[in-house]
């Protein structure tokens, strides 16, 4: 009995010591990704002595709050935030260098390329993909058939989109061929810029420090959109809407082609099961395909404790496993690895593979002034699209955008 009591005491002391040595890693997550990250943390915590503690931050407040916390010397251990902001935080020396760790992972080559590109600054890597998404087009196969188009053949060029949209609009009865969100910079970089990338062009230089607005690809893209607008093929709320009504307009059966994102497959099948649709990559003016790589990356804060750094990266290892990537697919729609199509989508709608496959060649603007250039409702990118597509002075709109981009970049480049 005495030996038994001693054994129990020893085990109790060992358990107490283990709990005492367990560490907590704080992770700020924007609310749009909060549920999935919280679930992943709970799955990790259930099998590990150390804990990942998730705090959800309103998406619009993430960047200013994180910046203030870093400046005040009290940041979280890590953050899961919109990948487009990583160059800014990396340039401000706010993130921890994890280059060697990333390059040493067996799945390194399968991590979403654009997420790694946006996490790279001056040759060092400061983040990894967490919850990506990609932009695509959805098209109503019933309207295609009614307009004499092949519902099994997705438009492979922007010119084909234009021709299809005009034929669908010609059906009349309040039917429109095309819907895009023209009054939101966040939407426009998501579904307008891929036309340029598909043509091998861009609106910024590779390092994000110079404006390259005026390109043949941009002018061809604008010409196609102007053609659709003048023909009455674009839904009228495209011009002034902020995206809130885009899905509903498409689901009504009155829109032929919708510029949208990877979420659309699961959303339509769940909420609008009667809509007959297919999805396809976003084409360039004359061909090619691209997409906006959106979503979140996970980054650690500069100076994080080495033990907490080990735990945080162990959590990344955990959610990068095939089992957890399948879980992410079930909960959020797209895994962050590009090599798990069979496992991730075996039990899900195979149309999801269109966005998944294009993620490997998707891009994201690399910039240190994303909000001012692209997101602002009065910024140069929104003004460019509004002026060049719906206005009368294409040359003037492009010239002004080049000038405004350059002025902002000269002031904000690190």
TrEMBL record:
<keyword id="KW-0574">Periplasm</keyword>
<dbReference type="InterPro" id="IPR006059">
    <property type="entry name" value="SBP"/>
</dbReference>
<protein>
    <submittedName>
        <fullName>ABC transporter substrate-binding protein</fullName>
    </submittedName>
</protein>
<feature type="signal peptide">
    <location>
        <begin position="1"/>
        <end position="22"/>
    </location>
</feature>
<dbReference type="Pfam" id="PF01547">
    <property type="entry name" value="SBP_bac_1"/>
</dbReference>
<comment type="similarity">
    <text>Belongs to the bacterial solute-binding protein 1 family.</text>
</comment>
<dbReference type="InterPro" id="IPR050490">
    <property type="entry name" value="Bact_solute-bd_prot1"/>
</dbReference>
<dbReference type="GO" id="GO:0042597">
    <property type="term" value="C:periplasmic space"/>
</dbReference>
<keyword id="KW-0732">Signal</keyword>
């Amino acid at each position: 009995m005495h030996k038994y009591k001693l054994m129990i005491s020893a085990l109790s002391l060992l358990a107490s010591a283990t709990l005492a040595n367990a560490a907590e890693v704080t992770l700020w997550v924007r609310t749009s990704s909060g549920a999935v990250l919280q679930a992943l943390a709970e799955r990790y915590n259930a099998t590990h002595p150390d804990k990942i503690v998730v705090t959800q931050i309103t998406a619009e407040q993430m960047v200013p709050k994180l910046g203030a916390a870093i400046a005040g010397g009290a940041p979280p251990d890590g953050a899961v935030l919109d990948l487009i902001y990583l160059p800014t935080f990396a340039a401000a020396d706010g993130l921890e260098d994890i280059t060697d760790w990333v390059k040493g992972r067996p799945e390194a080559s399968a991590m979403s390329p654009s997420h790694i590109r946006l996490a790279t600054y001056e040759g060092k890597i400061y983040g990894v993909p967490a919850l990506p998404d990609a932009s695509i087009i959805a098209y109503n196969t019933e309207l295609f058939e009614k307009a004499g188009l092949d519902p099994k053949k997705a438009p492979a060029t922007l010119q084909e989109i234009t021709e299809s949209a005009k034929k669908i609009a010609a059906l009349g009865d309040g039917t429109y061929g095309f819907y895009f969100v023209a009054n939101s910079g966040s939407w426009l970089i998501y579904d307008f810029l891929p036309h340029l990338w598909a043509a091998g062009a861009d609106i910024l230089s590779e390092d994000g420090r110079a404006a390259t607005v005026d390109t043949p690809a941009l002018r061809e893209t604008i010409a196609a959109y102007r053609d659709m607008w003048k023909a009455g093929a674009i839904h009228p709320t495209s011009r002034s809407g902020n995206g809130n009504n885009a899905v509903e307009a498409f689901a009504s059966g009155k829109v032929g082609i919708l510029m949208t994102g990877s979420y659309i497959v699961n959303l339509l099948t769940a909420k609008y099961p009667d809509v007959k649709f297919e999805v396809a990559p976003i084409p360039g003016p004359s061909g090619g395909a691209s997409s906006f790589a959106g979503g979140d990356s996970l980054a650690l804060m500069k100076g994080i404790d080495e033990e907490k750094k080990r735990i945080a990266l162990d959590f990344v290892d955990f959610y990068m496993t095939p089992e957890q990537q399948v879980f992410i697919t079930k909960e959020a729609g797209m895994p962050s690895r590009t090599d798990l199509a069979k496992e991730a989508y075996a039990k899900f709608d195979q149309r999801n593979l269109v966005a998944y496959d294009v993620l490997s060649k998707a891009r994201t603007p690399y910039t240190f002034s994303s909000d001012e250039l692209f997101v602002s409702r009065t910024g140069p990118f929104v003004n460019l699209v509004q002026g060049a597509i719906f206005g009368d002075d294409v040359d003037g709109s492009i010239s002004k955008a080049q000038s405004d981009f350059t002025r902002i970049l000269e002031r904000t480049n690190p």
